[in-house]
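[job 4471] stage=fold_predict status=RUNNING
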Amino acid sequence: MATIDVDFEVYKALTIRRETEEMTCNDVLRQLLSLGEQKSSENATENLGALVYKGAEFPEGTQFRATYKGQTYTGAIKGGVWLDENGKVQNSPSEAAYSITGNHVNGWRFWECRRPSDTAWRSIDSLRPKK
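[job 4471] inference complete, writing structure tokens
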């Protein structure tokens, strides 16, 4: 499956056009391009979309967790988007942290993740490419 980079404005426009949580950005693009629905036999990995933030890749099924004021919050990559524990789409680690704390927080240091290939939790900041 090919990966394309889009800017935040395009991603936001695609996300807004999702009619259900199950609808992927690929589904939105197919609809906009009048390609019709994708047959499941065409692409067996249609739900294996990865999300990439600033060079760090989070494959489908990646789990997130953070503890704030004694409570643990969670999220996961589902359908190629970050969904918090309430099913709300989060557009960045910092946005997800802000939705919990109400303060501007460095989301890269706030969150831990466990990707499907990982055996342990790790800071998502450790996944960013070093400049």
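[job 4471] summary: Helices lie at 8-16, 25-32, 93-101, 107-110.
[job 4471] exit 0
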